[in-house]
Design a protein that fits this description.
Layout (H helix, E strand, L loop, with lengths): L12 H7 L4 H9 L8 E2 L2 E2 L3 H16 L4 H8 L5 H33 L6 H4 L3 H8 L10 H10 L53 H13 L13
Antiparallel strand pairs: 1-2
């Protein structure tokens, strides 16, 4: 267990993680994924100097603020990639975020439009639901004046939007999140992209730590982050 004492050479992993509101396990995960280089050790414990803390901060900016996948973040944080290389990596993530923003803006616009409906039961009462389905879902590409006829046409012609035939009652071979041959599919924290340790009981965990959960809550509330302190740290 770390004493939490600051030395002349640097600080412990718990203190380094706390500086950015992370769990120590997230810092270790980033190291294993190549986002961070393992720091020097003193007495078997990680020790982060000023440069190490700056690099950890850059990792936070890439992974948490910039929402970059870990392999892309590693290109930026490594300090080994050429200027043009890490800038190109950022450009790729920027293009992806712009695409997602466009999709989210379209979703928001449609939900605001849907909100204007004044029918108690949209399915039963809305006179424009059929036209909405034709305009905004693959139903619009299926021939047929009514939904039953269109469904039969879609089923008879296969999944024309994917080019594969549809089979009724065909369960997924390996549902998302289930164990697969060779080990479990890791669950990543949506806040920091670190690993989420499965809960031995109760509901599955979404975030790796209380800090990430609280940060996500504050972001939803005020679109700002205010990291919460972590518990005892371990090297």
């Amino acid at each position: 267990m770390s004493t939490g004492r600051v030395t002349r050479q640097g600080v412990s992993i718990g203190e380094a993680a706390a500086l950015y509101g992370l769990a120590p396990s997230t810092v270790r995960w980033w190291e294993r994924q190549g986002v961070l280089d393992p720091p020097a050790r003193v007495g078997g414990k990680r020790l982060y100097d000023e440069a190490g803390l700056r690099r950890l901060g850059l990792a936070y900016l890439c992974c948490v603020v910039g929402r970059m996948p870990l392999d892309q973040a590693a290109v930026v944080t490594s300090g080994k990639a050429a200027l043009s290389t890490w800038q190109r990596t950022i450009d790729e993530q920027t293009e992806l975020l712009e695409l997602r923003i466009g999709q989210l803006e379209a979703a928001l616009e449609y939900l605001r439009h849907l909100r204007l409906c004044e029918d108690d039961d949209i399915v039963r009462d809305c006179p424009v639901l059929e036209s909405e389905l034709s305009a905004h879902t693959p139903r619009g590409r299926a021939p047929g004046a009514d939904l039953i006829t269109a469904a039969r046409a879609a089923r008879g012609g296969g999944a024309w939007w994917e080019g594969t035939a549809v089979r009724d009652e065909s369960p997924a071979e390996h549902p998302p999140g289930d164990e697969k041959p060779g080990g479990e599919v890791p669950v990543c924290c949506p806040g920091c992209r670190g690993p989420v340790v499965p809960s031995p009981r109760g509901r599955p965990r979404t975030y790796c730590s209380a800090a990430c959960r609280q940060r996500a809550y504050r972001t939803r509330r005020s679109n700002t982050s205010d990291p919460a302190p972590e518990g005892p740290d371990r090297s």
